[in-house]
Structure formats: C-alpha cells, structure tokens
C-alpha cells in the first residue's frame, strides 16, 4: 500500500513512517524539519499553500493518506490563533475534499482535548466543549473533514513516544528529567488514556484494514493520572520516583486551559473488534524500544 503521511517529522508521523516502512511504500510530507537519510521517501511542502496540496496528491499517488500534521503546541495556538485555524482547521478540510475527489482513503488525526474534561468517559456522541484555541481549531477541523469526506476515519487520540528532538512527549519529559536526577511535577488531577505511539499506529492500521469510517476514540482502555504515568515510567526504568512531586494543575500557571478528565470511552472501537493496548503493555513496548536504542536512531534522522 502507498501511504502518504503528513507531518512526517512529528512524533506520530515519524514513528508511523518508520514502523510501516518495511511493509508499505511510505511517502512522508515534511515542512520546516528536514530528515537525514530516512528509510522512506520524503516530499518537502508547505501545506498552507493551497496550490501545492493538489500537486502533493498527484506527485505521491497514495492509496491512503494519514494526516498527522498539526499545530500542536497548545500555548503557541493561544498566541497565534489565526495560524492555528489555518493549520488545524482549514488544511484538513482541503485535504479531505481532495481525497474524496481522487478516491484516496483518509485517516485524520484529532485529539481528546476537544472535551472540557468535567465529566470523563466521553463517547463519540457526547458534545465537545473545547477550552483552548488548539482544541477548538482541532474540533473545527474534525467537522470540516466529516462534511467534506464522510468516509474518512477521524481518530481522537492521545499518545506518547520518542521524538526527533527528544523533548516532545510527556514520556520523554519524565524520562529525561528523572534520568538527570531533576525533580518534576506530576498532576494528580489530570486524567488521560495515552497509547504508546507504535500501539496507536497498529490500531489505526487495523481500522484501515477493517474499512471503518467516521469518528472514533482511539486511546487506551485504561486511564491514569499524569502523576501515575510518571511513577510508572520511573518504576519501569528503575529511576527515583520520589523526584516526582504530586501537584494539582491549578498550582501551575499555564497559558491555555487544560481539561482535567480526558478519559474517553472506546466501546465503538471495541464493537469493531479492535481493542488498543492497556497501560502496562504500552509501557513495556516503550521500554523495549528504548533498550533497542530507538531514541538515538530517531534523533540521528535530525542530523
């Protein structure tokens, strides 16, 4: 299968390209961050230029597009709302229209942050209430994709893993700081259902193979606090868990509001006979790939 991946230097996009490169023809779309001799084809493109989107499709001729590119820095979105709207809302809509027109299957990556986190255990039918510019623009992007291409998969996700910079995910934050012996905060009142990025990739591809379409929550069936997440990493890697200070998110000044209980219901995904990995399995995969020097291999791609 020929798969076009946007945001191919981002955490999800890069891991997706590397993981699928052996069994598929991968074309990774890049913009500001170039890659050094990646094991897959790359195309450099500025997705904000409308005239280039159609040429991207024609040049890559994919069977499937997985749209990972996004403006994902929550505080940056607050500071630059128009840019966030362009990248997180308008571009997904344009790509969905092109995929519909050309018969290319589409997986669009969204976020659990579309909910306000007051209730938890959100199903796909529950009404979102985004608290930040990032969340609002991602929700608007979902709506445009759904309107332009109802057959697309829209996946609300939360994930962690190893990134090009080594500093993009919460797992790297805990791992880097604990390894260095630095004290860190762990939020006891922020709940989430993260998947290790490779487990997420496998789940997304299972959805593609089953020819699913529409909106799905694609997260772990098990929830935990960000404090507990950090403790689990410390214990798995043999690091000092006493360095993690339990804190409330209200004690830390953040520019953009955070949703406290982003636990998502995955019954719809289970009904399709797809069950993502639990927390222990995800952490085992994360640790195993660490021992296989995956962080170094990824960071070498940055040159």
Question: How is this structure best described in words?
Answer:
The chain is an alpha/beta fold and 303 residues long. It has a domain at 2-164 and 193-223 and 263-280: Rossmann fold (3-Layer(aba) Sandwich). The protein is built from eleven helices and 14 strands. The chain has helices at residues 11-20, 50-60, 74-79, 81-102, 133-148, 170-180, 197-209, 226-237, 267-271, 279-291, 294-300, and strands at residues 2-6, 25-30, 41-44, 64-67, 105-111, 153-157, 159-160, 184-187, 191-192, 195-196, 214-218, 224-225, 244-247, 261-262. The chain has a seven-stranded parallel sheet, with helices on both faces. A three-stranded mixed sheet has the order 12-9-14. A two-stranded parallel sheet has the order 7-10. α1 links the parallel β1 (2-6) and β2. The longest helix has 22 residues, at 81-102. It is globular, with a radius of gyration of 18 Å. It starts with a strand and ends with a helix. The model has no long low-confidence stretch (mean pLDDT 95).
């Amino acid at each position: 299968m020929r798969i076009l991946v946007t945001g191919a230097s981002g955490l999800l996009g890069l891991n997706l390209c590397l993981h699928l490169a052996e069994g598929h023809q991968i074309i990774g779309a890049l913009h500001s961050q170039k890659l050094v001799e990646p094991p897959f084809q790359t195309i450099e493109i500025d997705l904000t230029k409308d005239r280039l989107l159609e040429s991207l499709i024609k040049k890559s001729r994919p069977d499937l597009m997985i749209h990972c590119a996004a403006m994902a820095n929550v505080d940056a979105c607050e500071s630059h709302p128009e840019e966030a709207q362009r990248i997180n809302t308008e571009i997904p809509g344009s790509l969905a229209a092109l995929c519909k027109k050309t018969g290319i299957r589409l997986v669009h990556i969204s976020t659990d942050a579309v909910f306000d986190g007051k209730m938890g255990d959100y199903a796909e039918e529950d009404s979102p209430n985004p608290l930040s510019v990032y969340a609002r623009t991602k929700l608007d992007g979902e709506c445009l994709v759904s309107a332009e291409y109802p057959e697309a998969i829209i996946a609300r996700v939360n994930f962690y893993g190893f990134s090009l910079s080594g500093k993009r995910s919460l797992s790297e934050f805990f791992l880097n700081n604990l390894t260095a012996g630095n004290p860190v905060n762990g939020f006891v009142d922020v709940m989430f259902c993260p998947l290790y990025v490779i487990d997420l990739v496998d789940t997304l591809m299972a959805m593609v193979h089953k020819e699913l379409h529409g909106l799905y929550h694609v997260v772990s069936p098990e929830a935990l606090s960000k404090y507990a997440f950090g403790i689990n990493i410390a214990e798995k890697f043999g690091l000092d868990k006493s360095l993690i200070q339990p804190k409330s998110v209200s004690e830390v000044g953040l520019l953009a509001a955070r949703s406290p209980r982003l636990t998502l219901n995955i019954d719809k995904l289970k009904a399709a006979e797809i069950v993502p990995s639990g927390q222990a399995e995800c952490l085992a995969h994360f640790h195993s790939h660490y021992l296989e020097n995956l962080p170094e291999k990824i960071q070498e791609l940055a040159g």
